User: Which sequence fits this backbone?
């Protein structure tokens, strides 16, 4: 079954610390893509980072990096040097194979950054 | 930076009425999508659209729903005979071709059915 699992409904982190948001996925296709999106309280969905199943290196985008462990089927998001503005819902999503356009989303993790 | 624009931001409609949600995708994007997010739940795929036709749809996207690209810039989702359970945030997204291309989302339209 094609599925994304985010087991942390909520996470707290102190400003300037790093935080890891967990994501595991399930797909039987070898060609897939993994995405992370941020949803602030205002509701919009902001693309953060992408990892392809064949990418050899872990993706990085500024303070965001993706800890991709293919054998474990995990794609955890690491946010370094957390800022108050990072407080939001974070969704992991998967394009389960390259013949589909749809993204399958996880249930999300609410991150709260405190001073 | 180019962005996906959705109107209206909030739509309130009586049950049984028809509603049209509008989207202007990013101009050089060729793939368009609609997703919905019922309050407190995860985002669900509804439909994808390419080359003026539906390329994929979910089981949610039944005969009540339709999509259209009426001109070169707009992309619409029509919901006929709305039901209470259609209340949700509806997101439009667009992307460039390629499996590694991210889908860029609009700010969403909150649809409330009374």
Assistant:
């Amino acid at each position: 079954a094609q599925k994304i699992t985010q087991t942390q409904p909520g996470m707290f982190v102190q400003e300037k610390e790093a935080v890891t948001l967990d994501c595991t996925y399930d797909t039987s296709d070898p060609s897939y893509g993994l995405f992370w999106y941020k949803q602030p309280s205002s509701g919009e969905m902001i693309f953060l980072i992408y990892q392809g199943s064949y990418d050899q290196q872990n993706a990085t985008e500024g303070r965001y990096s993706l800890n991709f462990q293919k054998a474990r089927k995990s794609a955890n998001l690491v946010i370094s040097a957390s800022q108050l503005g990072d407080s939001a819902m974070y969704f992991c999503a998967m394009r389960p194979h390259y013949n589909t356009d749809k993204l399958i989303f996880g249930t999300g993790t609410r991150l709260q950054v405190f001073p | 930076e180019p962005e996906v624009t959705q109107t209206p931001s909030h739509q309130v409609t009586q049950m049984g009425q028809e509603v049209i949600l509008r989207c202007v995708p990013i101009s050089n994007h060729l793939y368009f999508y609609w997703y919905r997010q019922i309050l407190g739940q995860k985002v669900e795929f509804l439909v994808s659209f390419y080359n003026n036709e539906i390329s994929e749809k979910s089981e949610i996207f039944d005969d009540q729903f339709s999509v259209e690209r009426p001109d070169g810039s707009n992309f619409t989702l029509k919901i006929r005979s709305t039901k209470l359970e259609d209340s949700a945030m509806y997101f439009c997204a667009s992307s460039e071709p390629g499996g590694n291309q991210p889908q860029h989302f609009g700010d969403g339209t909150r649809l409330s059915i009374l």
Residues 7 and 59 of chain A are 22 Å apart (CA to CA). DSSP finds no helices and twelve strands in chain A. The longest strand of chain A covers residues 88-95.
